Every structure is written in structure tokens, then in C-alpha cells.
Amino acid sequence: MKEGQTKPPEKRRKKRLESHRLAAFLFLSPALVFFAIFFVFPLVATVYLSGREWDLLGPALEAPGVGFRHYVEIWQDDRFVKALINTFLYVLACIAFMPPLALGVAWMLNEVKVVPWFWRLLFFLPVVTSSVAMSLVWQYIFDPTYGPLNEALKALGLRPLGWIMDPDLSLVSLIIVSLWQGIGYHAIIYLAGLQGIPDDYYEAATIDGAGAVRKFFHITLPLLKPTSLFVFVMVAINAFQAFTPFYVITNGGPIDSSNVLGLYIYKTAFDFLNMGKASAMAVVLFVLVVLVSVFQLRWFRRREEF
């Protein structure tokens, strides 16, 4: 501070700080209102309804309370347990296959120099395609009798499969659909991460005699850790919330072999008119998503420490 200058009075400083806080709050208020309406209120309402016996035919606030009865009932429901197991299998499959495939596609897109925008758009199209229309197309592809997939197997001299009509393959079929639809989105995210890695690292590694494999494992993968964390968390969250392909293609069948939590919650609420039980399952699903996300965050953090 130059000689002769004095600090602003304390009152003026406090007033300026308050005006900055007010401005910050006004800028954040639209996002806070959106968050409260579309996240906090539905979450509170779901927790409230999980302790009520409501069938959608009367006012929810007048529904009789049942305490934690619904939370006990769902664990005694064999269909819920089956849907929970299917959900975990589906999530694990998506986590195991989606990120590596997306990274491979991103690497190929990064190497393409001829009309790169066209190839990126081609892989991204399934993401923006109507999920219902896409599911109907895949339902026809997997049709055991007239589907083109089985026709291709016959042309190769292989035995046709039951696909969505086979209890052992229905969940596998839906995993294939999800991979086809989601790889493009996560590949674009990985592509942005790849393009953010400076070329200086690769040039220095080349001078030191490192090959492509060593560059990938010692430069590319470590520098893609923040991107990979985002991809893994988003893949898990989206897999837990899967609904449309399961509803359109198999509707949870055959014999609940492809029934997942999102679909069973919908059926419990709107087919069986048991909003209390459906809300309890939704709360369980929310807790599972939070726990899996926290586990992934902690796992990646420990990896960075080592």
C-alpha cells in the first residue's frame, strides 16, 4: 500500500462483502431452485411414501403410515431379490466392458485423419437416437425366428440362439444393446482426454526408446485417470438406472431373467399400484448408487496415492 493511502473503513468492507455474497446467491439461485425441485423434493417425497400405504387412488398425505414394513417386505420378495441380482450383474458387465471398449474406440477416432467429424458423429448417433425406437430395432434383430442375427448365424453354419427368449441369454442380449448405445458417449469423453495429453510426453518417451505399449501404460492411462473416474462413475449410475431397453425388448422376461430394479419399481408402482413398496425399493436403489459411486471415488483416490 502506497504512503498516504488508507484502508477502506470496516463498514464499507463488510457492505462490499455482503453485496458479493448476494450477487453470488442470485447467480446460483436458478440452479438451486432446479436442484430443489427436481432432486430434493422427489427424494424427500420418495422417503415419505416408503413409509405409507398408498395406491395412487387417494391423497398421498392421507395414506396410512406403516413404518418400515415395506423395507422388510421387499427383502422377502423373491422377485425383488432376483431383480437386485440381475441389476448387479448388469452393472458389473457394463463396468467391465464399457470403459475399455470406449477407450479403444476413442483411440481409433483420435488416429483417424480423414473426415474425423464423420466417424465421431457415426459412433455418437446411438446416443442421440430414440431409446424406444432403438429398442424396437434390437428386438427385431434378436428375434429367435425371423431375426437377422440368427439368419447370419445360420449362414455361417452355426446353431441359432434364443437370445431374448432364452432365460440364459436375455440379460446378455440387453448388455449388448447397452454397450452399443453407450460406447459412443464415453468414447467422446475419452477422446477429449486423449487430445488433452501434451505431445511432449510421447516425444520424450520416443527419444528414450519406449514403444507403443509402454507409452500407453506409463503415459496415456495415468494421465487419463480423471477421465476414467468420470466414465466409471457415469457407467455405474446409468447402469443402475437402466429401464427403457428392458421394458421394450423383454419386459423383464422370460421368467424374470432380465428383470432389473428400475423395471420392477415401475411395475410395482403402476401395475400393482403399490407406491409404498416401490418407493422403498427406489430408496434402496438410491443408496446402492451412492455407495457404488463413493467406492469408485475412494478406489481411484487410493490408486493415485500409490
Describe this structure in words.
With 306 residues, this protein is mainly α. It has 2 domains: 10-49; 78-305, MetI-like fold. It has helices at residues 10-49, 69-75, 78-111, 116-128, 131-141, 148-155, 170-195, 199-207, 212-223, 225-240, 244-250, 261-270, 275-305. Helix 1 (10-49) packs across helix 13 (275-305).
CATH superfamily of the largest domain: MetI-like
Order of helices and strands: HHHHHHHHHHHHH
Q: What is the makeup of the main sheet?
A: none
The overall average pLDDT, rounded, is 88
Short description:
With 306 residues, the chain is mainly alpha-helical. Helices cover 73% and strands 0% of the residues.
Question: How do the strands and helices of this protein lay out in sequence?
Answer:
Elements: H1 10-49, H2 69-75, H3 78-111, H4 116-128, H5 131-141, H6 148-155, H7 170-195, H8 199-207, H9 212-223, H10 225-240, H11 244-250, H12 261-270, H13 275-305
Supply the key terms.
2 domains, mainly alpha, MetI-like fold, single chain, 306 residues
